[in-house]
Amino acid sequence: MAQKLRCALVAGASIIAATMLVACRVNRPANQHAQSQTLYTATTSDPRTYNPIIVTDTASGEAVRRLFEGLLDINPKTTLPEPELAERWEIAPDAKSITFHLRRDVKWFDGVPLTSRDVLFSLRVIYDPKIPNSIASSLMIDDKPLAADAIDDYTVRFKLARPFAPLLYAVGFPIIPEHVLNEQYQNGRFNQTWGVDTAADNMVGSGPYRLAQFVPSQSLQFLRYTNYWMKDEQGGQLPRLRSQTVLIVPDLNTAYLRFQSGQIDVYSPRAKEVNDLREKAKQLDITVEEIGIDTGSMFFAFNRNPRHYLKNGVTDPKLKWFTDLKFMRALAHSIDKTSMIDLAYYGLAEPAVAEISPANKIFHNPNLKDYEFDPRLAAELLEKAGYRLAKSGQRVDAQGNRIEFSLTTNTGNPEREQLCAIFKQDLEDLGIKVNYRPLEFTTLVEKLDSTFDWDVVLMGFTGTIEPNNGSNVLRSSGNLHLWDPRQPKPATKWEADIDRLLEAGTAEMEPHKRAKFYWRIQEILHEQLPLLETVRQIRYTAYKNSLQNYQPTVWGTYRQELMQFRSD
Amino acid sequence: MLRFLVNRLLNMIPLLIGITFLSFCVMSLVPGDYLSSLKLNPQISPEVIRQMEAQFGFDQPLLLRYGKWLWEALHLNFGVSLAFRVSVTELIAARALNTVILSASSMAFSWMLAIPIGIIVAVRQNSIWDRVLSFLAFLGMSVPNFFLAFLMMYLALKTGWFPIGGTFSVDYASLGGVDKIADRINHLILPVFVLGAAGMAGLMRLMRSQILEIKNADYVRTARAKGLSERIVIYKHVLRNALNPFVTMAGYSLANLLGGAALVEAVMNLQGLGLLLLDAVRSLDIYLVMGSVLMGAVLLLVGNLLADLALVAVDPRVDFSSISSQ
Q1: pLDDT at site A412
Q2: Does the beta-carbon distance from B40 to A219 stay under 8 Å?
């Protein structure tokens, strides 16, 4: 018996050894990227579609952005629009029409020239109500679509009902080929076209890269489009990188390991990884660089929606507290932003004051003064406003109600959970009881969107350069006007002021003149405090030293076509 | 036997309807739906959400929607994923092969190791072998899968002996035939170990307890008294009886073949159904979830049936009447 067992074990061991010997055949060095001029990056999930109009998630956007281009592109360094498929444009003196002159040397991947026909087709698709997409709302003026017509094959004119500055930031929408997609569109099958089951060769774009291969849950490969219209200053063909591979790595920790092993060339480290990478920079032959401050904002929103607080004819006292400016100012003084920065972001963040990020150079208001973290001042303000500390150590309002409310955010985000924990602690030091319970994302959305069954929520929005893109949040009738959405008419004077400023901000064409309106909006939000801003992360990048001309900014990579590997 | 088979197959129908209906209800009645994730996007207006709701049929009553789904499913049309706008069958098929390869390999790994080791420790009960291997078994059972997966990834980085996750190399498509197989095996080593480790531990303990129980039975004592060698006693008599629960488990394992292991897939970056389906549940992509629930339920019931048939074949004490009591 022992002999038979020994035989079995020897057999097993030799199978394993043979397996490993066979496998070793395939172990190749990971660093052939420079030789083959192939850039490797990573993303966290599979693309859901290749259709650039239908795209709603970042992973799909990542997959198609290399294939498609728009009339304009926003320069991530200056944050101003620049020519892309349109080589120049003219705004009429009354600002009620814009004429775009298309480049004449752009060809789709299948060799067909790109003309105004394609621009008009793309617009038709975007405005079609049967094709729900996220582009249409930014191309509407007062909820009405624009009129566009083709003056000739290479000239398109947009007609506006009134001057509308955000339009220049919105016309970067992807242009799609009419000769490829029109049939599907006419047959009503546009929504199902160019899904992830599409053969790579059928993806016809005009951009610097073509889709070469998609292996589900593993990788996306892009090959340079040799007939791309863009040339560098010396007339050399662009892009310089022969191909790009995007590895699909769902787990951030594993992505970090793969970066350290050299399989990934450019990586966005999380706060906790930055210092570790700095120490290993020489050994890994990488550079770790700060690129700027996060473009979005993260804030505590306080529910001021009367519908939530009216139950059986009795209004919950919370509504009074949250609309009492003295109460909110005291709370603003009790947010320990320094601890948030140190604990959640390892020191790599800055306190947020204005609702628009400093990364948005033109529209950020730099003149606002933060509410200093001062628990004693906060307690004093509360006492003076009538919220006294009872003998039990609990804070109560003038009617004797215990100051208590619920705090929530979405699960699965360790930084947010930490910020909530710190805020809860800060408030408890004032005698205010906070019941913190994170919720699954879809449950949270339902509360914010339908039932309004929440008191305080920690929420974040990503930033865009065009401030009007946040109008759904800022406008009193907006569905994302978190603290009191979808008002039939503004509930307060300051909300009416914001509505007026938003209107005025779209009518002024010159960016720096527009900025004044948005600076005033940020000032109002800072005074009225429906949102308590928290902190903004400082963004870093880490990349291999052999990569040249890599110019990252928080708004995107500047002139990606110039990137290449040092050839030595 | 025919009566038994027909009986079981007929029993499956109400079971499948019950399972799918329950799942459909749960998916429909939880707060939110697939469009919830789009509601917080400032670029997507409420009108767009409403249009999508109409397109997806969310405004129709639950029973009607379930009925439609069931009718289509009977025609082998499992609907279209809300997230991908691609047919559910297509999405599952793209990942099915690799999931099966992974599950089958890890099952083979754990069974091929568990059974001999289980026998050894049972035969040498309380020896040093027994203690060490049992300890390792408990260790394997206690360490969570995803943590072990991450440890293995770290090991791969530090030693460079294994690829750091992935199911194939990036240039798999350009490899020759033999190299392709070698590449797949290379990438399978760590995942199979991680997925097999926990299972192996449990199986080993089960085999051990089975053999210990049977080792001292009367008929075994008789066999020894008759003069049979210990080897024949263990391998021919004890083992055959000890395998009963394993036959049943093998049947259940059929369902796991296409289930995948979501957390391990995420950490080790594998192509598999587990992560696809976990994401589908979390984003409430209802038809993708229903497709996978149906698939899992069918495999489970079929596996159950096969296990029962195998049991009848293997164990002469068991006949159709004793297993058709459900």
Answers
A1: 87
A2: no
Residue A287 Cα distances to A27, A241, A247, A544, A551, angstroms: 27, 20, 21, 6, 12
Count how many Cα atoms sit within 13 Å of the Cα of residue A383 in the half-sphere of its side chain: 9
Q: Chain A residues with CB inside 8 Å of B266's CB? A: 250-251
A544 occurs within a structural domain: no
Average pLDDT over residues B63-83: 91
Rounded-to-integer distance, Cα A395 and Cα A431, Å: 5
> Total domain count for chain A?
2
| Amino acid A22: pLDDT | 58
pLDDT greater than 60 at residue A23: no
pLDDT computed for residue A430 by the predictor: 92
Rounded to whole angstroms, the Cα distance separating A467 from A53 reads 22
The residue among A188, A207, A226 that closes a domain is A207
Q: Place A406 in a pLDDT band, splitting at 50, 70 and 90.
A: very high
Whether residue A106 has pLDDT greater than 70: yes
In DSSP terms, which residues pair with A532 in a beta bridge?
Answer: A300
Query: Which residues does chain B have within 8 Å of residue A250's beta carbon, measured at their own beta carbons?
Result: 265-266, 269, 275
In angstroms, rounded to a whole number, what is the distance separating the alpha carbons of residues A436 and A418?
11
Q: Both A327 and A202 in a single domain?
A: no
Read off the CATH number of the domain in which A479 is found.
3.10.105.10
Q: A7: pLDDT confidence band, cut at 50, 70 and 90?
A: low
Residue where a domain terminates, one of A157, A186, A207: A207
What pLDDT score does A560 carry?
92
Structural domain harbouring A392: 297-537
Strands A404-408 and A433-436: parallel
Which of B:201-260 have CB within 8 Å of A? 229-231, 234-235
Say which residues have a Cβ less than 8 Å from residue B2's Cβ, sequence separation at least 6: none
Q: Assess whether A74 and A174 both reside in one domain.
A: yes
Radius of gyration of chain A (CA): 27
- What confidence category does residue A58 fall into, taking pLDDT thresholds of 50, 70 and 90? confident
- Contact (CB<8Å) B269/A49: no
Average pLDDT rounded to a whole number, residues A293-316:
91
Interhelix angle for B177-215 vs B244-257, to 10°? Answer: 150
Q: Which ipTM value was assigned to this complex?
A: 0.88
For A351, other C-beta atoms within 10 Å of its C-beta total: 17
What are the chain A neighbours of B169 within 8 Å (beta carbons)? 26, 28
d(CA A268, CA A259): 10
Helices B286-314, B273-282: crossing angle, 10 deg rounding: 130
Tell me, rounded to whole angstroms, the distance of Cα A453 from its chain centroid.
26
Bond before A269 cis per omega within 30 degrees: no
DSSP assignment of A269-321: --HHHHHHHHHHHHHHTEEEEEEEE-SSEEEEEE---HHHHEETTEE-HHHHH
Beta bridge partners of A67: none
Classify residue A563: in a domain, yes or no. Answer: no
> What's the whole-number mean pLDDT along residues A354-377?
95
Instruction: Report if residue A41 sits inside a domain.
Output: no
d(CA B237, CA A473): 75
Does A29 fall in a domain? no
> A333 has which bridge partners?
none
Check: CB of residue A135 under 8 Å from CB of residue A198. no
pTM of the model: 0.89
Q: How far is B232 from chain A (nearest CA, A)?
A: 8
pLDDT in tens, A191-222: 999 999 999 999 999 999 999 999 999 999 99
CB-CB under 8 Å, B51 with A443: no
Does residue A53 contact residue A67 with C-beta atoms inside 8 Å?
A: no
